[in-house]
Amino acid sequence: MKNVLRMTLVSESVRRENDAEHSWHLAMMALLLEEYAARPVDITHVLKMTLVHDLVEIYAGDTFAYDIQGNKDKEDRENKAAQKLFSQLPKDQENLIFSLWREFDDMKTDDSLFANALDRLQPFLSNVMTQGHTWMLGHVTKEKILWRMDPIRTATPALWPYLLDMVSEMEKKGYIPE
């Protein structure tokens, strides 16, 4: 996972974040922000999901969230990668890791909604700390950012006003493309 680079920069750096760092950041956020979940969550279960959610990118590669073309075959690439990667485990562990990965992606449980909201918040905060670097690079508009961040509004509603304030501030500073 250390070799899978994401578009997001590590805060105040010119170095791109890797998947291992992202998963660790996400797990730390889950521990620290659990109290903001709209509904009670099983933090141990959430942590397990944050640790496995991007494992498939070892074979599938990371797909930039706002890359329309890259997202067209993302599901197929990730399903093939999951089969290749998880099948190397003993059957009980294969089933466990696959179910955690699938639950995260399906976003149907309170735990997965919370974990997924944080998965969106983490690169958002990195963009705030790097003056919108990835947004500028990918020509990501305010509308696209708010659409992508919408799960935060329902899974962690107490954080939503702060996110909106940060978007407004970033827009005023010219860090979000028009």
What does this structure look like?
The chain has 178 residues and is mainly alpha-helical. It contains 10 helices and 2 strands. It has helices at residues 19-33, 43-52, 57-60, 68-72, 74-86, 91-106, 110-129, 133-138, 142-155, 160-172; strands at residues 5-9, 16-18. It has a two-stranded antiparallel ribbon.
Draw up the topology in text.
Blueprint: E1 5-9, E2 16-18, H1 19-33, H2 43-52, H3 57-60, H4 68-72, H5 74-86, H6 91-106, H7 110-129, H8 133-138, H9 142-155, H10 160-172
Antiparallel strand pairs: 1-2
Helix pairs in contact: 1-2, 1-7, 2-6, 2-7, 6-7, 7-9, 9-10
The coarse overall form would be: globular
How many helices in DSSP terms?
10
DSSP E strands, number = 2
Structural class: mainly alpha
Mean pLDDT: 92
What characterizes the major β-sheet? 2 strands, antiparallel
Oligomer: single chain
What percent strand? under 5%
Give the SSE order as H and E letters: EEHHHHHHHHHH
The N- and C-terminal alpha carbons lie at a distance of 34 Å
Low-confidence stretches: none
Helicity range: 55-70%
Query: For the CA atoms, what is the radius of gyration?
Result: 16 Å
Q: How are strands sequenced across the largest beta sheet?
A: 1-2
